[in-house]
Amino acid sequence: MNMEFEFDEHALKSVVGEAMEESRKAMQQVVDRVYQQHQGAPVESVKTALERAWRTVGSLTDPELTDWATLISNGEQIVFKT
User: Fold this and answer.
1) Degrees to nearest 5, angle at CA 46 with 45 and 51
2) Distance from first CA to last CA of the chain, Å, rounded?
3) In the list 18, 47, 60, 78, which could disulfide-bond 69, CB 3.0-4.6 Å?
4) Where are the domains of the chain?
5) Whole-prediction pTM value?
6) pLDDT tens track for 8-50
7) Are 5 and 39 spatial neighbours (Cβ–Cβ below 8 Å)?
């Protein structure tokens, strides 16, 4: 029995693009919530809040947590783009 499979590159790109956009939106919501609640707070406080909130969408390395917490502490928003 022979089966033929035709690869639809356009459909794959569409599915991957949709998944990336959903992921971006989820990550943006987490960062926006932490920003709204903790902007201007000390870096360590923001870092703790960010680490706890980020668990819903993934994990961050300590350097990433520190960098992002520093931005939020300084009142700078983080914007994810796809």
Assistant:
1) 105
2) 42
3) 47
4) 31-82
5) 0.81
6) 888 888 888 899 999 999 999 999 999 999 999 999 999 999 9
7) no
